[in-house]
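In response to a reviewer's request, we include the raw inputs and outputs for one of the modeled complexes. The two entities were modeled together in a single run.
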Amino acid sequence: MKKIIFNFDKPLKLVSGQELPSFELAYETYGQLNEDKSNAILVLHALSGSSHAGGKDGWWEGMIGPGCPLDTNKYFIICSNIIGSCYGSTGPSSINPKTGKPYGLDFPIITVKDMVNAQKLLIDHLGIKKLYSVIGGSLGGMQALEWAITYPNEIKSSIVIAATSRMSTQNIAFNETGRFAIILDPNFHNGDYYSYNTKPTTGLSLARMIAHITYLSEKIMDQKFGRELKSGKYLFDLHSIEFEVQSYLRYQGEKFVERFDANSYLYITKAMDYFDVTKELPNLKSKIKFLIIAFTSDWLFPVEQSMEIVKLLKENNNNVSFSLIDSDKGHDSFLIDIEEQGKIVSSFLEGLKNEI
Amino acid sequence: MKKIIFNFDKPLKLVSGQELPSFELAYETYGQLNEDKSNAILVLHALSGSSHAGGKDGWWEGMIGPGCPLDTNKYFIICSNIIGSCYGSTGPSSINPKTGKPYGLDFPIITVKDMVNAQKLLIDHLGIKKLYSVIGGSLGGMQALEWAITYPNEIKSSIVIAATSRMSTQNIAFNETGRFAIILDPNFHNGDYYSYNTKPTTGLSLARMIAHITYLSEKIMDQKFGRELKSGKYLFDLHSIEFEVQSYLRYQGEKFVERFDANSYLYITKAMDYFDVTKELPNLKSKIKFLIIAFTSDWLFPVEQSMEIVKLLKENNNNVSFSLIDSDKGHDSFLIDIEEQGKIVSSFLEGLKNEI
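The model returned the following structure tokens for the whole complex.
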């Protein structure tokens, strides 16, 4: 694996009508591109992910590697950071060439389609005409759907995991609470906190805590923490962190602010809110092989929402497989419950070889 | 209906070991107490409720009145505000007799049992030896269970709606995010905001927004707001409130801060977190008739948690009925989906008449 920066030096026209004067994408690759460049798989990350999907501490470490479901002995795996993010790609913390200062809230609004359009330019740059597959969970799954809609002839298959055809009302509502927390943090300074040498850590931390609850299932939270107390007894004190689950959430929040930019959180959650391809999917007529995967205990993107994708894709007779995986780990299953997901993905990819 | 203040002028010993030097409870009554004082029903309110349950704009207006499920032609209905609240009862915004200033965070930690103990003193004061029933939803349901445990001979029946035998890990986690929002609001001043002539409105508002999502079902949110846009189109702007559901949530937050005290929110959610009667219920041996009611779409206190109450009560052969109501309105069903709930409650109460 190696992290590379792809620099696109021309303007990128955005869905909003605005444009990015130029942009960079950080990406990593694993395995070898074969001679006819037909074995490339693009891995698409979720809200807070990066290009570091495979290898040590990669967010999909168990999925990518020799003999893994995304087998680097067979496939050339590319994982690109999305625009708007803060892991080496152009986003609100990048320098605005017009001002020489970080964009902040002058960064244009981006959508999932814009993320995909930027990735397409990277794929062109790599000289790949057709991707063997695009695959991702959560926001990554949305991108995998968007790839199919925008570039139906440039992908052979699309694997959409723990995702949806449209961001639900409840999820927009949860995102709203997270953004509200960030924007109202006194250290936010209308997105220009970079100039103040500070960060809206409290707001971003709280946003992450709220979101983190939605990533887990009630059952797994109960199993992991139950009503366990840090000191073994009630302290009858408002200031103390008494329950293990409180401590865990605070820790998740604190860890997150060290690694993620608050403005990126605003922009990417907004892009997710905008995501709605319920009109596009029934009109899609493609040769793409789709694999839709859902997890039983995922309540952020519940099974019904994956089934809705299947239904919409079938309206125009697209080729769709659907797998429901029994898991108690909630939405995060796609990141941590690798075994069954891996088997399904690898056999699906293997099956594509027999296709023309 | 008339709002009355019950003043208890002696110390109230609390579960924590601390005590309140004295306390007041605001309560309202509806209907007439009969001669042998055997027709009194105590209505128990939820987190942000008040004693104003019946009559115009009462939080259970449709449940209480002549000919209503809690029929004031038959029953004498009492609804008491809980200690810790801010609707006329002693809570953190009340004057601390020791300092002449509001308690703030010097208010002692309270539990559901303390709320019930305070109410019991009110019932004694009214000269009522045995309540015909205690009834409540959510935190009110927890109180109805606690009444049965603490005063099993002083109640004839207990109606526990949309509640639980122990606050779940997920719900403690959600409460934690709400309290975090309040405590980190710069206007919180460690709970002493009264002295600064300000209020942590941002934090409390956000706490309410988060909680409000948990009160509704995903389905009803989708039906009410879907992905409707306020201006009919995407604005591609981070500052705008684009989706109707965003606007609705903000409004819920703003409305709430006008009527509720942030410290009360901290103390009452903490009391809920402490609630766990899973050890007490199986040891209870009583003549109480229990009615447990759950709503299919309630994911804050899901059906399984009501069924767990039933199971625990049956271990010692307590008399328990269970009703599951099909509703798509989520946890708030107990407040708004009155019709079927009302029928079940009224026929249960009617049935008690034939009991000795």
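As requested, we also summarize the result in words. The two ends of chain B are 30 Å apart (CA to CA). The CA atoms of residues 175 and 269 of chain B lie 6 Å apart.
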